[in-house]
Amino acid sequence: MDKLNVIIIGGGLSGLSAAVELCxxxxxxxxxxxxxxxxxxxxxxxxxxxxxxxxxxxxxxxGCYHATRRYMRILGTEYLTxxxxxxRIVFLHPSKRSIHLACPPLPxxxxxxxxxxxxxxxxxxxxxxxxxxxxxxxxxxLSKEQDLDKLNVEEWLVKLGQSNLSxxxxxxxxxxxxxxxxxxxxxxxMLFQVLRAAFLGKREYSSLLLPRAGLSDVLVNPAVEFIxxxxxxxxxxxEVSKVHFEDEKIISVSTREGKEFRAQVFLSAVPxxxxxxxxxxxxISSELVIKTPSREICDWDRFKPSSIISLQLWFDRxxxxxxFAALVDTRVQWVFDKSLKFLSPLVSKAVKQQKxxxxxxxxxxxxxxxxxxxxxxxxxxxxxxxxxxxxPKAKNANIVHSVVIKEKRATFSPSPGLEAIRPLPNTSFxxxxxxxxxxxxxxxxxxxxxxxSGRKAAELVHSKI
Length: 465
Hints:
Blueprint: E1 4-9, H1 13-24, E2 29-32, E3 44-46, E4 53-55, E5 61-62, H2 66-75, E6 81-83, E7 88-93, E8 97-102, H3 110-117, H4 124-136, H5 142-148, H6 153-159, H7 164-179, H8 188-199, E9 208-211, H9 215-229, E10 233-235, E11 240-246, E12 249-255, E13 260-268, H10 272-281, H11 286-289, E14 305-315, E15 324-327, E16 334-337, H12 349-355, E17 359-366, H13 376-390, E18 399-412, E19 432-434, H14 447-464
Parallel strand pairs: 1-2, 1-13, 2-10, 7-15, 13-19
Antiparallel strand pairs: 3-4, 5-9, 6-9, 7-8, 11-12, 12-13, 14-17, 14-18, 15-16, 16-17
């Protein structure tokens, strides 16, 4: 077998991002992916009953996703997204109905201040107290970040004098949406980093970036095509089970089917539990391989998964006017209108006309551990109750079709103190590198974290070849 330049283990976004970067620089790269599809937890598929494109999980992107936007520009897919001119979020509440957070078209950070002052979901005194959080974003230091990582989000917000109303109507919504867990479970540092990235710099950084096609069409399939077009390959259904080393270097990997692949450099882009399995099968102690920013040992037991449930609901009529909204005091946290925008071009004109009478909504429950054992019927009941509490037109609407997607290990939960042991991209093996949204990106488990990690690892690989 010919010796390859680079082998990447894992064809999720971090692996694809690394492969795109390496292929763009002329390195022969092969991605080995255990599933029959690429994209990891970020992919879409066509629902056979409706012809609609469905994402495996609803993802929120933002203008501050610099690595992701660069990645899409390389792939030529940025036109498949729409960036808000300025941040605008509609909040739906059972008693207050519709509330708007709308940042005015002012330079950053004045747009944030204007948006908070004008946020009428809470009394003026609560909006003024929100400015204390905004003030915190203007400066940082290593010692401040270390202190923040000792606190959970709830503790930090209480320390900053944020009332229950301020937390419920704004900060908790942002936390759960960005960090996929509840404020008492996640590091204050992670929320701080997200807020700084979004609200400092250009105004567009805080705007939401909305896909206009399925995530596979925006982020995955064009990457696979780019890799193959530039001398690389993506092999699906190829699960790496072991790595083999000699003279303190990795020399090859073997698959569950017994195939062996040799290369100069190897890059692991699988989740922490996947890497743990591969290292254990190979007789390699992770303590001797993984490097961390703090030089502490990377304790796998401290990485806890956080789940997401996505509910795709097709109604017999239109019940929501907004393109998306955050829900407050409900179990469902976000709802998105997916009608027609994500319809397969193969669907007939008659079907499209029929669909125009109804509406396809995508609902999200993040940090959904307590809901994971519920049946589809129970989850649909919860979703319908919540929608009818905040959308008057939902009271007489009927669900004509539904798909429920449970992602048990959708993300890692960025608990306080975890930042110190998230792995660096380089390891003790000089030709083994790591990528993944769980590595030391400075971000929570997001599309941006995954893409950024792949790019960073690719840059290190490039320097070694």
